[in-house]
Write a structure and sequence with these properties.
By secondary structure, this protein is an alpha/beta fold. The protein has a single domain, classed as 4-Layer Sandwich (Metallo-beta-lactamase, Chain A), CATH 3.60.15.10. Helices cover 18% and strands 30% of the residues. The protein has 5 helices and 14 strands. It has a 7-stranded mixed sheet, with helices on one face. The chain has a 7-stranded mixed sheet with strand order 7-8-9-10-11-12-13. β1 and β2 form a beta hairpin.
Length: 228
């Protein structure tokens, strides 16, 4: 499984030649200002959305217009919102695993909020638990640490967890360490930090705190890749 980190919470997963774009945030992202980011992509098969905040959904329409066969997967309300715009969607909610060509996907809990910029209700915020024959991955979405994370490893051992670490709106470093304990996952890709002034972290200190707990915190530069 190939994971490309772009910035903020935007990642792309490549599994069995399927490309899954997570929470696309480019056009309003200060890190990608004045760049033709669409040229970076040759193929998108699925777009996964954790919740409706603009820094996770602002470029859904751009990507769906360029890759018109891409399927948006999100909660029921977000799927309805984009479906009304003529975008192909697949609405889900907290419930069972659902099979796709890339593996099994489950929409899971997050403690956050979810509303579009125009005030439209964005349904329950969530994350994704992805089970594949290349390994299992947890994408928490924007969330605080929560006791429900203890349930995630009961579904299967995780190879990697993608967790926010910037604080204020989500978990900070110490809470993400606690979350990794609940998840029984010692390999963490940190996201949702340093994009804006109010979610700045000390990257060196963050890695040190995880290392002291016997864990690995991966902090990637823009457009860098890891293999899971």
């Amino acid at each position: 499984m190939k994971v490309t980190f772009f910035s903020h919470s935007t990642c792309m997963l490549e599994i069995h030649e399927k490309c899954l774009l997570i929470d696309p945030f480019f056009s309003e992202n200060p890190i990608f200002k004045n760049t033709n980011f669409l040229k970076k992509f040759q193929k998108i098969d699925y777009i996964l959305l954790t919740h409706a905040h603009y820094d996770h959904v602002c470029d859904v329409e751009l990507f769906s217009h360029k890759f018109n066969n891409a399927l948006v997967i999100s909660n029921y309300e977000i799927s309805i919102f984009f479906g009304k715009k003529g975008i192909k969607t697949y609405g889900i909610n907290y419930g069972s695993f659902i099979s796709f060509p890339f593996g099994k996907l489950k929409y899971v809990w997050a403690t956050h909020s979810s509303v579009f910029n125009d005030g439209t209700y964005g349904g329950n915020p969530g994350g994704f638990l992805l089970h594949t024959d290349e390994g299992n991955l947890y994408i928490s979405g924007d969330t605080s640490v929560m006791y429900e994370m203890n349930l995630i490893p009961h579904f299967g051992k995780l190879k990697l967890s993608i967790l926010p670490i910037g604080g204020r709106y989500t978990m900070d470093i110490e809470e993400a360490i606690l979350a990794s304990d609940f998840l029984k996952c010692d390999k963490i890709l940190g996201v949702h930090y340093n994009t804006f002034q109010d979610i700045q972290i000390d990257k060196k200190q963050a890695k040190k705190r995880f290392f002291e707990k016997g864990k690995e915190l991966i902090l990637l530069e823009k457009e860098k890749i890891i293999y899971v």
